[in-house]
Each structure stands twice: as structure tokens, then as C-alpha cells.
Amino acid sequence: MAKITVNGRVIEAPDGAVLLEVLKENGFYVSSLCYIPGLKPYAGCRTCLVDVEGPPGLQLSCTTTVQDGMVVRTDTEEIRAARKAVTSIILANHSDRCLTCHRREHCHPGDICLRDDVVTHRCLTCSKNYRCELQATCEKVEMAGYEPWVGEERSWYATAHPEADRANPFLEFDPQMCIICTRCQRACNEIRHTGAITLSGKGWDTRIAFGAGGPIHESNCDFCGACIDVCPTAALMEHPNKWVAKPDRWTTTTCDSCAIGCSIRLGTKEGRGVIVRPGVGNPVSGNQICVRGRFHYASLKPRERLGRHLVRRGTILAPSNYADAVAEAARHLRQARERGRVAVLVGGTATNEEALLARIVAREAFGTEATTALAPVLRAVAGALEARFGTARMAGNLEALAKAKTVVVVHDDIEESHNIASLRVKDAAVAGARLVVIGALRSELCDFAAAWVRPAPNEEGWAAARLAELLLGGADEAAFADALAALRGADPESTMVLVAPNPVSPGKAAAMAAGAANLAIALCGERASEHLVVLPPEANAHGLLDLGLAANEPDWEGLAGLLVFRDDPTLTVPAAATALRPECAVVVIDGLLHETAKAASVVIAEGRAYAAEGTYTAADFRVQRLAPAVRPEGEAVRGFEALRALAEALGVSVPATPEEALLQIAAERPDYMPAADLIVGEGIRLDVSRAPKAAVVPLAEPPAAAAGTLRLISSRDLYTALDAAALRHPEAEKLHRYDRVRLAPADMARLAVREGDVVEVTDGRLTVTAPVAADERVPEGAVYLSSLMAGGIAAAFFAASPMPTVRIGAPVTA
Amino acid sequence: MAAAEPSLEELRQLVSEFRPNRGHLLPALHKVQDTYGYIPRSAIEVIARQLNTTPALVYGAMTFYAEFRTHPPAQTEIAWCSGPTCRILGGDRIREALEHTLGLPLGGYSEDGRYALHLGQCNGTCSEAPQVWVNGRVVGRLTVADAIRLARRIREGA
After folding, report:
1. Which end of chain B is flanked by fewer CB atoms within 10 Å, N or C?
2. For A587-602, what is each residue's pLDDT tens digit?
3. CA A540, CA A351: separation in Å to the nearest integer?
């Protein structure tokens, strides 16, 4: 540690630390408009000037490092004058009237400015007013009241302004507001490793540009929004709720879009979400989230969510009050129980506490075990792991990716399904780890990989198993040569294996888990389970696994009653539709009127995950807190409350609050005990012990596929919103990339179909009709359909055949 | 006008000799421009893939250098020298004359693609100042009358 003196105060700081960060941590104000904590300084804005004794002139605190005995001043007259001068240069080419006008507090949008007729170019009409870093900086450096335009030429008003890009549903880019701090370019490149942003041109014409200079949605931008987080002005803004995103409350909670469980801060205004920023809590996500976490809170309009409880009256679902709906639900289920079997189904975004309640209700009221539509896949994966490790809970920690030297990923494409896991893998690869990717799709990760093993479509698991065999002493095979070279001699201690089992095909998921397990054992031996992370489909899949909800699969035939909590099983399990007959009393507790809810006798409206209080168990058995961030729409209640009321009406006693429910879970699984002390947003890793054994079990041969047709590949895509997909919403995928039949360009040429042609994809019995899109990720001889496309049609193809193949018909004329 | 945009396959073939991390970006851009007279947008993606980098990086480098064109060249390319010697000797009036007679701003292309006017950076042939370059050939020691005559000749297609 070094001792430095700042404005006469002695502070301690680590030797070599960035002076700017040390000053800010210790409460000294230094303006800085281009620095990003943790990244190399750019020294572009020049406003972080301080006076360091010794060297002549003022120094930039972002490029100065702490040395013992340093004497620093941050508030001399010289510094203030220099900062103002530098800021005025930045403002010279920015819309700045309201930044510096002494009347800015008195004016309102629509007022006529007495000094200028261009009233639209002002903070009061800027969407970032009152949350703009440049605006705040002007206040802090005493630029308010400085009037640079009096007698000076104003270059901002003298040149034509570049056009804003508002052509995509997520990100708005207005280069007029840009001060070329390049934070977005560096965040995209150095934090996200995407590199979608560049500086184009030079000198006066320098601008931020995306991709090859076209619109953002034509670049390789993934819409993660890391650039929005760092933008000091309104140049980069979220499109949804852009004008109203001035929240009255911020709540740190956990994203419900995948099993990483990223911490998010959800800003709400009058109970409705208006903005999401990364939250502090989950060390895996750190300060990053993906497009789903940032934008899927707004995937549906408030009126598209369910705000009323519904009770069936003949053919219609009529609005009802809460008490009547609960009583009706209990009556229907009780009567169904008298007639026969009642199943209880819990969705993958239910919290542990909600799942516990559903399980208690299932046992006490219906004499059955609660289950989930994910059970086929989760059971298949658990079976594969138990055969090799004697347990289904892998002890691998995603945080260990930061120090990993060797990383293996067995996946369809985690860039799409578990985006932040992919980001951490890229971090590791950029830091020098050898990355081996096994997957038929050309993932973005392939660009970072030392070796990419590309098996035949859907044979990822078998390829991983084969690689394990070769590592354990087989001969080299050409297809695995690079991978073997990268993996031989890997240090077991710093090796990580990630597997993302396929969400639609239990057979493929089991093979992927088995192959990855064999590979982990080949690489890490006895301790393999500590180096293997399973990335399951959906946010709380591992919580459902821990609570035993994945232990058995529902038998859909001949059900007398069905209680569904926050799920549309028809979206993931095609067989579920057979349960939705008039003879079966269906009660749905959900915030959406989806296919299952439409067939229900009673629908109790609830607020879904962002209204829930409770916990999720993420992929690496990290328990993350959810806090109620949004208010359920209309008369809807919180999911936990709906389940509790229903239990009461059925005469079952259940924990009264989520806290009590968590304590009850902890009584059953003591490793959940520390989670009871978590504060909102925090997470804690469960103490998952090393597996009792680690034994390679060979895989049976992959199922044969019919020859001469296209193999079907399906996985979770990055952009489709789960909520909206359950409603079969035409805008479930707002970019309209994954509501399409995706084909390799070469196959498109061979089949004589062009981008946008509407085609039929059929296996002989099932057919889906959609436009074609070219996709370089897809191997030749394959078709890619998103798992959430067209009401989960891909799952139906996989239910019909373990290795489905399809034909593509000639384009259908509209 | 130049021929239609080359196919992706043709572009891939053209840049196949270049390798990542060897400073091959500018040679690749030069080769594409030398072949087609400009850099088609589709080439940016092809070069990025070939050099294992991002389209944004290629685009950033390409736009930094004024020499790279994203537009097929006109039949007659006129570059107005903006160097200090030319300007001291009245280059600004030459520019005005050219802009006015051709009806184009600096950086503009005529509607039929026959001629275009660009900003040039000093190439050191200051003995010929004030000058313009017509398809790379120096036309120097201009007077405003010379410039108008030159522009008229080009405009009328001589």
C-alpha cells in the first residue's frame, strides 16, 4: 500500500492503482467522461485533470498511477479553469444550451427560448435529461452559467447532423449526441469481445459506427446494451420506455431468462418496469447482462399480460374476483381428485419457494408428486450424470472460468442459450485459455477456440464421448486432432467443462451430458464433478431438480385434473395438449392467457417472476434472491400468494411466506440454510460436495437418421422472449431472425430458395410454414428451428423421432 | 459505371492469400480496390472473416484512409488539392470554380456517374500549384478561367 496526500488528506491506496479510481473511491470529485473502470485508460476526454506535485503541468488522473508519497490536488483554481476549458471544447460540438443556461430550471418543453430560436436542441427535450453524465459533469465543473455561444461560432449548429438509427427494437443510436468518448467501442470490444462498434472516419468527421457502417441490426451487435451502460450522453439509449425511464424505484433481483441467474436492477415507475441495468450480486454476471435480461421485461405490453382472474362459464372465460376464482379452482380440483388423477405442473421460472408450495399441494391434496414440463430433459441429464458420478449435482463453479487455462464447451450454442456463460468463456479465451468447442452450429465461440469439433447435427454428445475415449488412450483421429492437441497435458486443476443440454430433445440432452461427463473425467479424473457445469434450460431448472420436481414425468393420458403454475406446457411438451380436453379440469396460475390457460376452467392471474419474492438455483448451484420489483397487473396477485390461497382452499397447510418456505426447504436440504440470510440481489453458492465416484461409461451408438433429407437442429435462441412465445405472439422475436427456417447458404442455393421465401418444413406428419433465412451457423444438410418458434413445434419433431429429418418444400406463394 | 457487385465467392477467392494477425488488413483492402475500383460493402464482411476480425474493425480502418472508396469510381475523378501551397496560390477559388461549374460539392458524384470531385491531400508537386488531379494526373498552374474550362470540358464529356 502507498500513502498519498490528496487536498491535504492522507489516504492509503494500492501501489500502481489508477489515481482516478482511488480518488473516486475516496470521495473526491474528478470529472471523467471516457474512463471505464477496469479497462485501459483512453485519455480522450481530458477532463480528469489533477495537479500532481513534481511533474510540470496538470496530469490526467486516468493515466496516472499511485506512487507512495504522491501529493495530489483536485480543486485548485488552475484545475477548475482547465476543466472548464476542456469541457467547453467538448460542448462546442454538442447540443448544450440547457447544460449551461442559467434559466434551465425555469424552462419547460414547449417554452420559447428567449435567446435562441432552435428550441428543440436542448436538454429539456432530450430523453436523457436529469440522468445524463455530461449534464451532471457540467454542473460539477461549474459550467452552468458559462455561455460559450456568446460571440463564438457554434460548430454544432453550423454543420449538418448525422441521422439517428432507430431501426431496431432495442437500441437507439443518435450520433448527434455523441461526444466520441469511445466508451461504447471499448465496452463492446474489450468487455463483450463482440467488436460491433468502431470509430469511422478521422478528424472532424470521426463518428461511432456499427459493423460495416450500416444500421445496427445489420452488424454483429448482440444488443446486450453494454454500450448503453457506459454512454455518458443520450447517443445510445434503450428503445423501450426511452422517454419514461426515470424510475421511482430500483429493485435488485434476478433475471428469469436463463439458468445463469444474472443480477439485474429493475427500475419501475408506478409498479411497472421501465428500465433494466446490470445489478450487483451474482459474481458470474458481474456488471454484464444480455439482451434478454435488459429488454425482455418489456417483451409484452402491460395490457397483454393477465390482469383479471378468469372462471369458465360454458365456452367463455369470464372475469371473476380473486376469492371466487380461488374457491372455484379448489372445487374443480377437488372434484377432479374424486374422479381420478390430478397432476401438478410447475414452470421453469417458478421460484424454489413457489415450487415447494406446489409440491406440498400435490402431495397433500392430490396424493401425487409435483412435476415440470422440463422433467423429460432434466431426468435424462440427471440419469446420464448419476451413471457416471452417482449424483446429478455437479460442483463446478462458473466463477472458476476466470482462472481457467483449458475450457471445453459441449453445446448447441451457449452464445444464444446462456449468453453470459459464453461471455465468461470468451473472457477466459482472450486471457489465454485453450478453448475447445464441440457443437454442430458455428457459434461465435468458434472464433475464440483453439479447436472446434463439428460433429454431425445432434451428435455433440457422442463427439464429446469419442474425444474422451481418444484422450484416455485411443489413436488420433483427424477430426479430433486439433482438440486433442489443445487438451493433452491440460492441468486438471484449471480445466472447466461446460455443457448446455439440448432443451427439446431428452435423448440428445442425455448424450450431451454423458459425453461432457466422460470428457470431464478424462481431463480431471476423480475430481471431474468439481470442474463440470451443466447449464440447464430455464432459470430455475436446478431448483426444481433439488426439490425433486424433475424426478418423474407427468403421464398426460387420462388426467382428471391439472394444476399448472407459471407455465405453458404445450410450448415444451407436445403431449401436454392431450391433457387439455373438456374432461380434464385445468387450473392455471399464470400471468399470461396462453394455450393452456385458454383451455382452463379457472385462471388465477399472477405477476410472474419479476413480481415474485424468493430464490432461484442457478446453473452452478448458486442461490440467487428475487425481490418483488413489479406490481402484478390489475387484480393479479403474486404467484406465491395465489398458491398459498389455493392450498388454504384445498385444506392444505403450507408456509405463509417465502421466508418460511425457504426455511422449510433448508430443513430438508441443509445446504440451502445460508440462503435464508441473503439480502436482496445477493447470491450464495450451495456447498455441493464432490461426487462419490467418477467413472467413464461409454455411450450407445447415436440413433440413425433417415438418409437424403435435412437433419433438424433446435435450441434456445437469444432473442425470443419466453413470455411472448407462450402467447404465440407475432413479436415474440422482435428482430424476426428466429421466427424463420434457418438454412446454410449452400443449402438455400441447392434447394433454390431465397431469403424470405415462405416454405413448408415437414417430416411427413408435422408441418411448419415460415420464411427462410440464411444462417452461416447452420451446417450444410441441416435445418435450424428455434425451440420457441411456432408454439414449440421443434419439440414435436423431436418427440416423433430421436434424430428427426425434414424436407423443405418449394416456396409457397403468398 | 463499374460492373455489378462481385459475388461473395469471388471476393473470398480474391483475399484468400491474406492471414490474420500479420498486418494484412490494408493490403487486402488495397487488393479489393485495385480489382474493382472501390470496396463493395460485402467485401468488408469477407475480409473480416478471412482475417478473423470484426467487420467494424475493417470498416473503421477503411474509413480512416481517404483513399479507400465505398462507391464505384466515376469515369473522370477530379481531386482538388487542399495542400497549403495550392491554397496560398488561390486554391480555394479553384475549388469554388470547380464546384460551381460541375454542380457538385467536394465528395460528390454526378448523377450519371461520369465525373466526381474529391478532396485531395498534398502530394508534394507544389511546383505545379494550384493544381487538381484528373484521374491521378496532375493538371497544374491553374487559373480560375483554366479551372472553369477544364470543368466544362469534363461536364460536357470531352
Report:
1. C
2. 999 999 999 999 999 9
3. 7
Query: In the prediction, which pLDDT does A725 show?
Result: 92
**Cβ contacts of A194 on chain B, cutoff 8 Å:** 54
Distance from CA of A735 to the nearest CA of B (A): 20
What gap in Å lies between CA A435 and CA A515, rounded to an integer?
17
CA A757/CA A632 separation, integer angstroms? 41
Q: Which residues pair with A251 in a beta bridge?
A: A266
Q: Which residues of B touch A447 (CB under 8 A)?
A: 52
**Pick among B5, B12, B54 to test the A interface (most A CBs inside 10 A):** B54
DSSP character at residue A691:
P
Pairing of strands A602-605, A309-313: antiparallel
**What is the least distance, in Å, from the CA of A185 to any CA of chain B?**
10
Q: Which residues of A387-426 are buried (b: 16+ CB within 10 A; e: fewer)?
A: ebbebbbbbbbbebbeebebbbbbbbbbbbbbbbbbbbbb
B52: nearest CA partner in chain A:
A447
The residues, any chain, with a CB within 8 Å of residue A106's CB and separated by 6 or more, are none
Cβ atoms within 10 Å, residue A757 = 19
Q: For residue A158, what pLDDT is reported?
A: 65
Q: Is residue B125, in this structure, part of any structural domain at all?
A: yes
Spell out the domains of chain A, with CATH numbers in brackets. Answer: 2-155 (3.10.20.740), 171-238 (3.30.70.20), 249-299 (2.20.25.90), 304-374+543-668 (3.40.50.740), 377-537 (3.40.228.10), 710-808 (2.40.40.20)
Give the Cα separation of A616 and A37 in Å (integer).
30
Domain span including residue B98: 76-155
CB contact under 8 A, B59 and A212: yes
Residue B84's CATH number? 3.40.30.10
The rounded distance, in Å, linking the Cα atoms of A34 and A38 is 12
Per-residue model confidence as pLDDT tens digits over A559-590: 899 999 999 998 888 888 888 888 889 999 99
Beta A263-269 vs A272-278: how paired, if at all?
antiparallel
Residues of A with Cβ-Cβ distance to B105 under 8 angstroms: none
Instruction: Determine which of A529-538, A550-559, A767-776 has the lowest per-residue pLDDT on average.
Output: A550-559
Name which of A212, A219, A447 is nearest B52 (Cβ-Cβ): A447
Could you tell me the three cell numbers for B11? 471476393
Q: Are residues B55 and B108 in the same domain?
A: no
Q: In this predicted complex, what is the ipTM? A: 0.83
Which residue, chain included where needed, has cell 435488485? A252
The 3-class SS string of A200-213 reads ECCHHHCEEEECCC
Q: Which of A195, A201, A447 lies nearest to residue B56, judging by beta carbons?
A: A195
Q: Do B56 and A201 touch (CB under 8 A)?
A: no
